[in-house]
Amino acid sequence: MTARLRAQDVTLAYGERVVSTRLSLDVPDGGFTAVVGPNGCGKSTLLRAFVRLLRPDAGTVALDGRSVSSFPAKALARELAFLPQDPLAPEGIKVRQLVSRGRYPHQSLLALWTKEDEQAVSEAMITAEVEDFAERPVAELSGGQRQRVWVAMVLAQRTPYLLLDEPTSFLDITHQYRLLALLSRLRDEGRTVIAVLHDINQACRFADHLVAMKDGRVVAEGAAADIVDAALIKDVFDLPSVITPDPVSGTPMVVPE
Question: Which pLDDT score is estimated for 228?
Answer without folding.
Answer: 98
